[in-house]
Automatic annotation (TrEMBL):
The chain crosses the membrane at residues 41-63, 75-92, 99-119, 164-182, 188-210, 251-272, 284-303, 315-333, 339-361, 401-420. This is Organic cation transporter-like protein 2. It holds the Pfam family MFS_1. The keyword Cell membrane applies. Keywords: Cell membrane, Membrane, Transmembrane, Transmembrane helix. It is found in: Apical cell membrane. Residues 1-28 are annotated as: Disordered. SUPFAM superfamilies: MFS general substrate transporter (SSF103473). Residues 35-426 form the Major facilitator superfamily (MFS) profile domain.
Length: 431
C-alpha cells in the first residue's frame, strides 16, 4: 500500500509539474492573462462573423427573388456555396497550420469583406452567383477554434471549444433579427453594407489583438519542418495520413453519420415549418431564436461543466444515445409544441457531439496538423448542405416528417452499439 501511495504521489507531482510547464508552453511566450484575453478576442470575432453570416442568410432569399431567381435557381445558389465551403475547409486548415491562426483568421475576414462587397453590387443573377466565390475561404469558426486550441491546455480544450456555441447562439439571434429589421426599414442591400463594414472591423481586430504566433516555439519549428515535407495546401495523401492516426477514422465516422439525419431535417425545416407545423414567417423566426437561446445555454454552460467531470468517450456515447432518443421523439411528433420539447435534448446532443469530436480529433493528431484536422471537421456541414436538399426532399416527399426521426433512431442506435463494443484507441499526440 505504501508503495502504491508513493507511486500515486509521484504521478500526481509529475502531472502537476506537467500542468505548470504546460500553461506557458501552450502559448509560447504569452502569460495566462494574455492567453485568456486572446481567447476572448477569438470569441468576439466568431460571434461577429456568425452575426453577419446569419444576417445575409435571412436576406438572401429576398434578394434572389428581387433579381428574378426562382426556387430551383436559389437551390443551385445554395449548393454552389456549400460546395465551395466543402472544398475550402481543408485548404483553410492547412493554411492555418502553415501560416498561423492569425493569418487564417485575417484570410477569413477579408474573404467575408469581398463576399459582402460583391453582394452589395449584385444587380443581376450572374453577379449574385459570383458573390459566392469568396465563400471558399470564409471559415471564421475553424479559425477561432485554431486560436483556442493553440492557446489552451488539453484539459481545457473541450470546455473552451464548447463556449463557441454561445457565440453561435448570439450570431443566429442577432443576425436574424438585425437582417430583418435593416432590410425592412432601409432596403434589401443595407445588411450587405453592414456586413462589409463589420467584416473589415473583424479584420482589424484580428490584426491588432491576435498575436502572430500562437503556438509554442517547439510546435512552430515542427510546423515549419512538416510544411517543407508536405508540399501543397491540398493533398489527398495528407488527409489519408491524418485518418491513419489511432482512433481518428472511427471518431470521424461517428461525427459524420450521427448528425446526418438531423442535418437533413434542418435543411428541410423551412418547408416543414410551413407545411407540417403551419407556421408563419414571424413564428418560424421565434422558433429559431428559441433554438439559438438553447444552444447558448447548453454550449456556454453545460458542455464545459460535463467535460471536466466525465471522459470524452463517455460524453460521445451519451450524445449518440440521446440522438437515438431524439429520433424516436421526432418520429412520433405531431405539433410544434412537441418539437419545442424535443429540441432541448436535440440541441444538447448536437452541441456535445460537435464539441467532443472536435476535441478528440485535434488531440489525436500532432499539434502541427490541428488546423488541417479542423478543416476536415469543417467539411461535414457543407457536405450535408450539398447533398441534403436532394436526399431530404426525397425523404420528406415520399415518407413524410417521421422518416427523419426513424432514420435518426436507426443510425444512432447502430453507432451506439458500435461505440460500446469497439475499443477505439484514443491517444493524445505530444509535440
Amino acid at each position: 500500500v505504501s508503495t502504491m501511495n508513493v507511486k500515486t504521489s509521484s504521478r500526481g507531482e509529475e502531472e502537476a509539474s506537467g500542468m505548470r510547464n504546460e500553461t506557458p508552453g501552450e502559448s509560447g511566450c504569452l502569460g495566462e492573462a494574455k492567453r485568456r484575453q486572446v481567447i476572448r478576442v477569438a470569441y468576439v470575432i466568431a460571434a461577429l462573423d456568425l452575426t453577419f453570416l446569419f444576417m445575409q442568410m435571412g436576406v438572401m432569399p429576398y434578394l434572389a427573388k428581387s433579381l428574378g431567381l426562382d426556387s430551383v435557381g436559389f437551390g443551385y445558389l445554395q449548393t454552389i456555396f456549400g460546395v465551395l465551403q466543402l472544398m475550402g475547409g481543408y485548404i483553410f486548415g492547412r493554411f492555418a497550420d502553415q501560416f498561423g491562426a492569425r493569418a487564417a483568421l485575417i484570410l477569413s475576414c477579408v474573404s467575408g469583406s469581398v463576399f459582402f462587397l460583391l453582394m452589395s453590387l449584385s444587380t443581376s443573377i450572374p453577379l449574385l452567383f459570383l458573390s459566392r466565390l469568396p465563400g471558399v475561404f470564409m471559415h471564421g469558426i475553424p479559425g477561432a477554434q485554431k486560436v483556442i486550441i493553440d492557446m489552451t491546455t488539453s484539459s481545457q480544450r473541450a470546455g473552451a471549444l464548447g463556449k463557441l456555441g454561445f457565440c453561435f447562439g448570439v450570431g443566429i439571434i442577432t443576425g436574424s433579427v438585425l437582417g430583418g429589421v435593416l432590410s425592412t426599414k432601409f432596403g434589401i442591400y443595407v445588411p450587405t453594407y453592414v456586413g462589409l463594414v463589420g467584416s473589415l472591423i473583424n479584420t482589424l481586430i484580428a490584426m491588432v489583438c491576435i498575436p502572430s504566433q500562437t503556438k509554442p516555439e517547439s510546435d512552430h519549428h515542427m510546423t515549419e519542418n512538416s510544411t517543407s515535407q508536405s508540399g501543397s495546401l491540398f493533398s489527398i495523401r495528407e488527409i489519408l495520413r491524418l485518418m491513419k492516426f489511432p482512433g481518428v477514422m472511427e471518431v470521424f465516422i461517428v461525427k459524420v453519420f450521427a448528425g446526418l439525419p438531423i442535418g437533413l431535417f434542418m435543411i428541410m425545416f423551412s418547408i416543414i415549418s410551413m407545411d407540417f407545423f403551419g407556421l408563419e414567417a414571424v413564428e418560424s423566426g421565434y422558433l429559431m431564436s428559441y433554438v439559438g437561446v438553447l444552444q447558448m445555454v447548453v454550449q456556454g454552460l453545460v458542455v464545459g461543466k460535463l467535460s471536466s467531470h466525465c471522459t470524452e468517450m463517455t460524453l460521445l456515447r451519451l450524445s449518440v444515445f440521446i440522438f437515438a432518443g431524439v429520433g424516436l421523439g421526432m418520429a412520433l411528433m405531431r405539433t410544434v409544441w412537441h418539437y419545442c420539447v424535443i429540441v432541448v435534448p436535440l440541441v444538447f446532443a448536437f452541441s456535445m457531439l460537435a464539441t467532443i469530436t472536435d476535441s478528440i480529433l485535434t488531440k489525436a493528431v500532432p499539434s502541427s496538423d490541428t488546423g488541417a484536422m479542423l478543416g476536415i471537421c469543417a467539411t461535414v456541414q457543407p457536405l450535408t448542405r450539398t447533398v441534403g436538399p436532394t436526399i431530404g426532399g426525397v425523404l420528406y416527399k415520399q415518407f413524410g416528417v417521421s422518416s427523419f426521426g426513424y432514420l435518426q433512431l436507426m443510425v444512432n442506435l447502430g453507432l451506439f452499439v458500435y461505440l460500446l463494443k469497439s475499443k477505439i484507441p484514443l491517444e493524445e499526440m505530444k509535440s
